[in-house]
Amino acid sequence: SKPDRPFAVELASIDDTRLEVSWKTLSPQHELAQYRINLGEHEFDVFPLVEVQALILESSADDVSGSFRVHFNGEKTGPIGLISSSDALKDALHGLSTVDEVEVSESTLTSVYPYGRRWTITFISPRGNLPSLLVDTGSGKPSTVATGGTLSGSDAILRVENVHKGGLPSSFVTPPVLSSLNAYTAQVSSHNGHFWSDASSSINSLSPSKTNPSEPQDVTIHVLSPSQLLVSWADPLFDGGNDLRHYSIEWSDSEVWGDSEALVSVDPSESSHNYVIENLQNKSYYVRVFARTTHGFS
Q1: Which value, to the nearest 10 degrees, does the dihedral of the CA atoms of residues 100, 105, 110, 116 take?
Q2: Contacts 24+ apart (CB under 8 A), 264-271
Q3: Using CA atoms, how far apart are residues 252 and 195, in angstroms rounded to an integer?
Q4: HEC profile for 189-246?
Q5: Which of 63, 5, 40, 85 is closest to 183 using CA atoms?
Q6: Structure confidence at residue 112 (pLDDT)
Q7: 135: Cα separation from own chain's centroid
Q8: Residue 262: which of 293, 235, 287, 236 has the closest Cα?
Q9: Is the pTM of this model over 0.85?
Q10: Residue 53 to residue 220: CA distance in whole angstroms
Q11: % helix / strand / coil in the chain, to the nearest 5?
């Protein structure tokens, strides 16, 4: 039988050549194979995404050593050395009955930290929206962050990052093929591997236009000293159709934001950025990062 039609289809502008289409569905995600989006003369097919997670190791000195374990869906690996290759981590994960097949790549992180390493894990099987990997170094319960225990090194920390969730997405950003001179209405239908649903139309029509940038990605904070915090982030996914000019970093010791802020100029050749907040008191701080273009702030 036909699947339920999507509903609550909406359009939002990304820039002057792209729109984001979002929708909801009553059909369970595992029963659907794909969506199809029609925007005027353009047709786009949306398929399930693979789950991608990453393990990130950082230290304020090149003196890390030790090992860690990875947990997934109730099972755990044996000890994995911090200098293990991507193949060694892949073999360890394949030793879990809850993991069928993954691909693992590794890279060196570029940051103000002298040492950083990243293992990116792509789940080939199982698929779908998966639970997070957890790590432990024997100093506490398995978590998305581990320090101490079998992990040694200056300010060494191991954390799990969700790069993007698997499964069928409920939104789609078009490639830059649309015209700002046209107003578009989206039609979205779903397919269960046998039949197409009826199509649902967006509740609004929209022309692509320049807009504010999206928020900076992967914002993290590390303690460098009792008076210093390292703030790291990556470029926004979308710049709104305008060149990025600055990032604004704000910090406060309460949820009431004050006047403590800094502007960081954008280096077009860099996709990741860092800023050290100094002269802080020995207390907890809130930090937020905005991207700025000529159009406005994220």
Answers
A1: 60
A2: 268/243, 271/234, 271/235
A3: 54
A4: EEECCCCECCCEECCCCECCCCCCCCCCEEEEEEEEECCEEEEEEECCCCCCCCCEEE
A5: 40
A6: 55
A7: 19
A8: 287
A9: no
A10: 16
A11: 5, 45, 50
Q: Residue 252 carries which side chain, given as an amino acid letter?
A: S
In angstroms, the CA 130 to CA 232 distance is 26
* Predicted confidence band of residue 109 (pLDDT cuts 50, 70, 90): confident
Burial 233-249 (b: 16+ CB within 10 A, else e): bebbebbbbbebeebbb
Strand 34-39 relative to strand 19-24, pairing: unpaired
pLDDT of residue 180: 95
Backbone angles phi, psi at 67, to 5 degrees: -150, 175
Q: How far is CA 190 from CA 21, 35, 204, in A?
A: 14, 4, 20
Share of the chain above pLDDT 90, in %: 55
Answer yes or no: is pLDDT of 48 > 70. Answer: yes
Kind of pairing between the strands at 34-39 and 75-76? unpaired
What residue has token string 């305008």? 242
**Residue type, position 196, single letter:** W
Query: What is the β-pairing status of strands 157-164 and 101-108?
Result: unpaired
| Predicted local distance difference test score (pLDDT) of residue 111 | 57
51-59 and 145-146 beta bridge pairing? unpaired
pLDDT digits (tens, 9 = 90+) for 213-239: 999 988 888 777 888 888 888 889 898
Neighbours of 208 (CB within 10 A): 24
| Residues in CB range of 141: below 8 A, 6 or more apart | none
Report the alpha-carbon distance of residue 218 to residue 56 in Å, rounded.
12
Q: Identify any residues that bridge with 54 across adjacent strands, giving them in sequence order.
A: 120, 161
Question: Average pLDDT, stretch 132-142?
Answer: 93
Per-position b or e across 22-36, b if 16+ CB within 10 A of its CB: bbebebeeeebeebb
